[in-house]
Design a protein that fits this description.
The chain is an all-alpha fold and 100 residues long. Helix content is 86%, strand content 0%.
Amino acid sequence: MDRDERFYRKWTAIREKGKGKFVLSRGLAHGMFLYVVWAAATGLLDQDKFTPEHFVVRYYYYFPIYMIVGFIISNGAWSGNNKRYDRLIRYDEKQRKNLP
């Protein structure tokens, strides 16, 4: 099974579940990952420069920002994957490759 066939099977199943579920689940995952990396780096690199109270305030402000960024990333991933899926469908219709 080649790469396009694997993508086709996987994306068909994901696409059936809907854009909302994909963007919500992947957006939360991306946002949390970005937030945790940022929080760890900030805590380790800037701990001597600021007071602990300053960090707490920053963590509360940046959490929703990174969640929004995560949703934007996952929305872009949905669009990109749909374009690839549609190209595969058009190519299959032209070549009669019959994807599974």
